[in-house]
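lol forgot to send this yesterday, sorry. struct tokens for the thing we talked abt
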């Protein structure tokens, strides 16, 4: 069982808010009652500007300028390393780190399977929320199929 940022914050959170919530789950005793996963939902990737770098890796929200909404938003000043630091913080509290991704044209997971699987491995993701809530178009459904194959590679390697 776990806790997900979406219902509380949608995509409007920052590192301090996230760490505060991890601490609250531990300090309140919820972790000991079975809330062992801390799942970071949407909003961590860049919404404005280039979504992926030249190597095909997802760009993180590095400044408020890349946020979909006004701040606060998940800003990781050190990009992927900052996200890894947060994931390690979650594990240091005895919890497991979960991450949200989606099989949409926006993330373009279909053509970046290797990069996305490598990101999951690098972060040490222990729970992947991978939903296709906006996969009503044929191209999105096709992307969902090949993205599911990427998720399978992540959990079987």
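and heres what i got for the seq, position by position
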């Amino acid at each position: 069982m776990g806790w997900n940022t979406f219902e509380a914050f949608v995509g409007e959170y920052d590192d301090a808010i996230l760490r505060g919530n991890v601490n609250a789950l531990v300090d309140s005793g919820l972790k000991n009652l079975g809330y062992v996963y801390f799942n970071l939902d949407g909003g961590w990737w860049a919404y404005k500007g280039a979504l992926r770098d030249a190597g095909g890796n997802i760009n993180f929200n590095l400044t408020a300028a890349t946020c979909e909404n006004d701040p606060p938003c998940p800003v990781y000043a050190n990009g992927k390393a900052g996200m890894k630091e947060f994931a390690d913080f979650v594990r240091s509290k005895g919890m497991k780190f979960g991450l949200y991704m989606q099989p949409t044209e926006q993330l373009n997971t279909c053509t970046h399977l290797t990069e996305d699987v490598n990101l999951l491995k690098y972060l040490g993701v222990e729970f992947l929320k991978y939903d296709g809530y906006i996969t009503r178009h044929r191209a999105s459904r096709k992307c969902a199929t090949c993205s599911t194959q990427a998720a399978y590679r992540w959990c079987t390697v």
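The first strand starts at residue 2 and ends at 4. anyway ping me if u want another try
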